[in-house]
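Hi team,

As requested, here is the filled-out complex form for the 2-acetamido-2-deoxy-beta-D-glucopyranose run. I kept the field names the same as last time so the parser does not choke. Let me know if anything looks off before we queue the next batch.

— J.
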Amino acid sequence: NSHPCVKYNTALFLLPVCGVAPLNTKIVGGQDASPGSWPWQVSLQTNDFHFCGGSLINSNWVLTAAHCFASITASQVTVYLGDQSLSNQTSNPNVVSRSVSQLIIHPNYSSSTHDSDLALLKLSSSVTFTNYITPICLAAAGSKFFNGTLTWNRTNSKPSDVNTLLEVQIPVVGNRKCNCLYGVGDITDNMVCAGLLAGGKDSCQGDSGGPLVSKQSGVWVQAGIVSFGIGCAQPNYPGLYTRVSQYQDWINQQITSNQPGFVTFTSTGTDGDLNRNVAPYLLLSQIFHLVMDHMFSIGERSGLQEGQFSTWTLLLRSKAFPERDVI
Ligand SMILES: *[C@@H]1O[C@H](CO)[C@@H](O)[C@H](O)[C@H]1NC(C)=O
Ligand SMILES: *[C@@H]1O[C@H](CO)[C@@H](O)[C@H](O)[C@H]1NC(C)=O
Ligand SMILES: *[C@@H]1O[C@H](CO)[C@@H](O)[C@H](O)[C@H]1NC(C)=O
Ligand SMILES: *[C@@H]1O[C@H](CO)[C@@H](O)[C@H](O)[C@H]1NC(C)=O
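And here is what came back:
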């Protein structure tokens, strides 16, 4: 099979056990997510407030950001899975919740540099997978994400919908370029940047800990964890994500049984971050088209082919408890 790192359930028609969203028919972002579109997305809540997102990576563990726990301890957290809207989670039969029996923060996490901004949460008991609750595959060591990607929109344009899961596509910005924007050295190899350089689409507070995902050969793979940024959706300040592929060894050291599925994500073509003069390029969507036309007019290039690099970040929005680090 084409994903040697994915564990396949051979009893069930070779379905991979991670990264499959049977109810996700979406190609283009920019709308409320329909139920089941992103079945690995979880909401972390304390006293009924959503404070961070996260992703389910096997039946017992959630991956999220370390900075979510600056002032919250594991015993205060309830994890909601199968949730599509924070406003009806109690009446939604697809939603299950768990408390947290263990919190593991990466030992190299630094709140000043934002490096290694990741944490693992062990659920109090395992969850059963459904069409609404499925683990995401993680990007394996050596995965390559050229610039050009997708994420969640965070705006206040529809405040009444603030509790609904929204989705948006944005491009990955190469680390070299991102370092130029943020200040050389601030963006480490442990981070991925994504955002429109023209501004207007970005993750923001409340999205922290949530996944940045890309689809490859029908399987969704998590590239990043929402970490920090300067403001939200500001021109020339893309969002920063923890680069999941740098942490395969560490994650596998913490989760010793029933390990999450790791998939090597491969970008083909030429890395636009290294070479400015290339890039055959296909549109991902009409909205994206307009924006990218603008970007091309100011000299941007994306070395992506359609479908190859659709990266999304999902935000479970909440007015109540903003938490992405904004610097
Ligand atoms: C993101 O928010 C902006 C501002 O409200 C809006 O114009 C745009 O359509 C949104 N994009 C998506 C993809 O939701
Ligand atoms: C929950 O709310 C969302 C958004 O309003 C809606 O699409 C979904 O159908 C609701 N689910 C249930 C089970 O009521
Ligand atoms: C923490 O960082 C040090 C220095 O870069 C590195 O040698 C070590 O392996 C890291 N620890 C983990 C758990 O990754
Ligand atoms: C891709 O890399 C090129 C070269 O550094 C850069 O100019 C461009 O902004 C990048 N494209 C995107 C979408 O980030």
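Two things worth flagging: Helices lie at 175-182, 248-254, 286-297. Residues 35, 84-85, 88, 91-92, 164 surround 2-acetamido-2-deoxy-beta-D-glucopyranose (ligand 2) (CB under 6 Å).

Thanks,
J.
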